[in-house]
Predict the structure.
Amino acid sequence: MALAIRKSTFSVLATARCIVPREFRSLSSLPETNEDVAQDVAKRSTGRRIRFQNPALEYRHVYPEFLPDPNPKWRNTLREKMERADMLKRRSQIDIPEFYVGSILAVVISDPHAQGKTNRFVGICIERKGCGLRAEFTLRNVVDHQGVEIRYDLYDPTIQSIQIIRLEKRLDDKLFYLRDALPEYSTFSFDMDPEILPEGTPVPVNPVQVKLKPKPWLERWERQELKGVANIEEHLKENDRVRRELRKTPWEKYDLMKQYRKTIPAEDQNEIWGEVHNQLNQLKLSRKKMFKKRPVTTPKTQLA
Amino acid sequence: MLIKLLNGGEEVTIQSMFRSFINKLCFNNLSCGFHTSASLNEVQLLTRLRVVDNSEIGKRAMAEGKPPKVICVYNKKRIGYIGDRVMVAIKGQKKKGILVGLKQTQKVKVPKFDSNNIVLIDDNGTPLGTRIHVPIPTILRTILKERTHAKGADYTKLLAIATKFV
């Protein structure tokens, strides 16, 4: 009996080993490509079991800040562990929703400088970076024809609430080109109503392509292979095109070592996600409960 | 990977790869000897600013396409940060102003603007205009209150003409 059990566990381990290296390449913490999405969707459709066995597939995009910086100089397992515990503690205090670059958020912070002691800002998330407690995101909006950007720490204790107004992704990992785009692409009114996606739908990708203002630009956008820009060719001169060709690095997508150095290996990720999986799941459940409660509270009818 | 490439007939990409690689080897050391890091966007001597209040002189200067130039930043570093007093050359005159929004990367929770904004004031701290048409960072309240002394210039009058805080 015992032998049989041992055997079966061994076989499970062996199959797991077989699975892990195959999934290794798609386990980057970088934002996913379209193929990646297709893979994930395929996996989800094949069955629940795989998803539960390897939560990394789901979590690495939803909670990218739980993965440490891949630079070995900055790795410190103990510090990372403590940071993760602190992050979970903070997440139990405040609901930090799932969001991506391109989503529209409303952030309320307690601000000692403001008159009402709170400050609300709405904007599109143009960047998300940093690991652990240092994770930060940047919101951009155009208020009164003036472009404004505010950077927030995700685990800042002065943040009172983070609300998702529109959950979606864009075609690029960073939207800095909105600074050089026409202002209507980054204009959002402060009293926008939150759009609620039905449960279980994948996060939609907004395929909008922005139009850039004529040069001078802040960066050389033509060299960055951006997908979310429509009219980049109009503004280029012959010299820019030549320089772009010369500066191209088409071999980089085949550089496996570079890719490896940028990502956390699958084994390490499994360890991390195994550690935080339970608590994250609980937080998710409690959020769902809150979500279900919300529609019940109808506004009270005022008596004349 | 290479074999795959060769079989796929992507000779053009390989050629361009090779060419750009050689270019990198040769020209990087020869022609591109200067430093090309991102600019810090600091407000310093001769920086052009944008007047955001509705003072007559400021409006005319901006409409003519001759925005004011910094000729002095009143602090020890001579680099302007948010809330600093600057002297500007505007339409052939010397005026003082307060920086109310910077392009430069700011601290967490402090807004970063798309232009370097300035509000013109006189020597007592009274603004020349009557309205500010762009949002003003809230941190300016605290900064300007600290800079205001009982018998010196009162910079907080600027906050009263602001229309929106972010």
